Structure to design on (223 residues):
């Protein structure tokens, strides 16, 4: 039985063993060096009733050491700091100390230091509410014409995010609509924008805008 396990697929097993030994010898024999690596910050296990309301953390920098072949862009693009928020139990500020256990790196690369070593996050209750859509225009209608009616569908958008940020939003503004050459009723599909990166639109931000124009009495239409 033991002999059969050894003999079966013998050459494949021998090749795999040789390949593994070769890779190990390559890594062991390769000189180590250090590097400073920017890493994306990711979050997991945020309680569903809470939102992060502090300013976004652009980058964390990692002082790392490892084989020179592993300290290259294809490998280090995997670098990330993954922060587990499962222990957060309510609104307020909380400080997190970062160490190697929070870092994802390619095999063979070690973390020597995380910069900064601590981050402080602010958590708020997440809420949802509706805000009206305000239409923006670029330029004015042709001379003698005026906008007499504006209809949007939908007229309100549902937004969600941290409580203080959502309550601060009064309206959602559309991208500017050009009516400088419009002399009849027209319809436009445009995006609505929320000027707060912590707040997001539930559903689609696309709005259908119908504009009704009229010319002043006595105006002669231009050929």
């Amino acid at each position: 039985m033991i002999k059969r396990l050894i003999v079966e697929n013998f050459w494949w097993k021998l090749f795999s063993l040789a390949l593994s030994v070769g890779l190990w010898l390559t890594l062991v024999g390769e000189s180590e060096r250090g590097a400073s690596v920017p890493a994306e910050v990711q979050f997991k296990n945020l309680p569903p009733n809470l939102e992060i309301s502090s300013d976004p953390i652009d980058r964390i920098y990692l002082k790392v050491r490892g084989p020179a072949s592993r300290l290259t862009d294809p490998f280090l693009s995997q670098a990330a700091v993954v922060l587990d928020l499962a222990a957060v139990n309510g609104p307020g500020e909380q400080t997190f100390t970062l160490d190697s256990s929070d870092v994802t790196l390619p095999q063979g690369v070690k973390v020597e230091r995380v910069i900064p070593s601590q981050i402080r996050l602010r958590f708020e209750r997440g809420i949802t509410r509706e805000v009206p859509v305000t239409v923006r225009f670029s330029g004015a209608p042709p001379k003698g014409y005026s906008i007499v009616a504006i209809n949007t569908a939908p007229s309100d958008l549902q937004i969600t995010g941290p409580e203080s940020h959502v309550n601060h939003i009064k309206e959602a503004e559309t991208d500017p609509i050009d009516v400088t050459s419009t002399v009849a009723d027209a319809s436009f599909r445009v995006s609505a924008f929320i000027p707060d990166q912590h707040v997001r639109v539930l559903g689609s931000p696309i709005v259908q805008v119908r504009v009704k124009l009229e010319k002043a009495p006595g105006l002669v239409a231009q050929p």
